[in-house]
Amino acid sequence: MRAPWAFSVVLLAGSGCAPNVPPGRSVSVGTSSHGYLRSGVRMPLAGPGFKVVRDPEAAFGTARMVGLITRAAAAVERRLGPGPDLRVGDLSLEAGGRIEGHGSHRAGRDADVLYFARDAAGRPADPGAMAFRRTGEGERDGRRYRLDTTRTWALVEAMLTDSEVEVQWIFCSHGIKVLLIEEALAQGEGADLELVRRAAWILHRPSNSRPHDDHLHVRIFCSEEERALGCADTAPLWAWSSADEKLPASSATDEEILAALGSEPEGTGRVAAH
Fold first, then answer.
1. HSE-up of 57 (CA within 13 Å, CB side)?
2. For strand 86-88 and strand 50-52, is the pairing parallel, antiparallel, or unpaired?
3. Model pTM score
4. What is the mean pLDDT of the chain?
5. Does a cis peptide bond (omega within 30 degrees of 0) precede residue 236?
6. For the chain, which domains are there?
7. Residue in 222, 192, 206 with CA at minimum distance from that of residue 264
């Protein structure tokens, strides 16, 4: 089976010169860690299946980033019915750039969202921000909760199958990654093994920041138009993504997917998220 990654880096257009971004066009410029945002779009404070729970001044992204979150949240609600809203944390500042508490989130292509949870009786719950152990258990204010793997995997699936945006990373802890892949495989014959194989790479604990056991950090690729205007993707550029040359799709067996859980793409090095 051909390796599902490609190690290329797209450099800033114009050899460091400021790109000529059309007025009013929502564009991510530079990388997630060294970039900025033109004509940032504010995430609505609430909508079908979601609500913003952090500083509204840090709730800006490209139109593509905001669209991904709103579509994915609505897709989870349509599929599983009403439940606790997806709680949306920081995206970027209106013009991007440095944002307190983050090393990335500077170019409108990153967003933090909280995990879905259930209470001790198994009912959907909204405990706020909290960390989950690798067993999926957690506590807040003296109450016990469990990671809602069904709803959280549905969110991941909606993002990875979005027709308009390509996701590069969804940062999470190792333990939560395993729980989500197990949830996907538990669907049996209904599981999309190619999608699960991709998720096994994209769900990832970053090397240089907190374990992301209390939220998912989503990062999307630049669009083709954005790349021409100075947006810069960094490696790895997945072989299935338009960010790199298209490679033939390959099927994956259960054994290959499970094997992927214990490994990382060779040569990726350290992946920064926060």
1. 4
2. parallel
3. 0.83
4. 84
5. yes
6. 5-261 (3.30.1380.10)
7. 206
Among residues of the chain, what percentage have pLDDT more than 90? 65
Residue 270, pLDDT above cutoff 50:
no
Q: Which residues contact 222 (CB under 8 A, 6 or more apart)?
A: 10, 28, 109, 231, 232, 233, 243
Residue 18 has pLDDT above 60, yes or no: no
68-119 per-position pLDDT tens digit = 999 999 999 999 999 999 999 999 999 999 998 888 999 999 999 999 999 9
Position 253 confidence tier, pLDDT thresholds 50, 70, 90: low
Burial class (CB in 10 A: 0-12, 13-18, 19+), 66: buried
Residue pointed to by tokens 């054994």: 255
Q: How many other β-carbons are positioned within 10 Å of the β-carbon of residue 75?
A: 19
SS3 state at 266:
coil
CA torsion 159→130→128→148, rounded to 10°?
50
**At 257, which amino acid appears?**
I
- Any long-range contacts for 73-81 (C-beta under 8 Å, 24+ apart)? 73/47, 73/48, 73/49, 73/155, 74/47, 74/48, 74/49, 74/50, 75/154, 75/158, 76/49, 76/151, 76/154, 76/155, 76/158, 77/48, 77/49, 79/154, 79/158, 80/150, 80/151, 80/154
- CA count, 13 A, side-chain hemisphere, 21: 22
| Cβ neighbour number for residue 247 with a 10 Å cutoff | 15
CB 245 within 8 A of CB 18: no
Residue 151 in this model has a pLDDT that exceeds 60:
yes
Please tell me the distance from the alpha carbon of residue 129 to that of residue 155, in angstroms, as a whole number: 17
